[in-house]
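hey m, so remember when u said the tokens were messed up on ur end? i reran from scratch. heres the input so u can diff it against urs
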Amino acid sequence: MTTHIEPEQIRRAMRAWASGITIVTAAHKNEQHGMTVSSFASISLDPPLLMVALQKTTRTSRLISRARAFGVTILSAGQKEISERFAGRSDDSNDRMEGIETETLITGAPLIKGGLAYFDCRLRQAIDAGTSILFIGEVTAVKQFEGQPLVYHNRQYARIA
């Protein structure tokens, strides 16, 4: 017997989970896009694999599927506005990437300058998971920088003291 749980119940309960903030990006042909994602995890060190979960209907999800690659930038404490922009909380009529300083490593996925770490990934597997897709990427390159992370808890940004 399964119990029906309303999506809003899950959203409210998940607010208790503090997490770092990432921007997941992809580029294919002349198109690039990205979105704020907190569903991110390292799943293997050898081979180096990580996972991001995105809703199936997002532009970023479709772009990753076409590009067969994606980038992940872990945001630093001073990048709240970038998180908001890529979450679609500010004016989304313009290109989210416009005016954002990026760099690329191997796959061509844009990585957001000023972040604490970059992971450049080739798509290894896409797993259907309800309203989401779990993208498992093999890390082809990584860069790390000094600083404090941007943290999200109970629908608010926070800094680690």
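this time it looks ok to me. The chain has one domain: 20-158. if urs says something different then somethings off w ur setup not the seq
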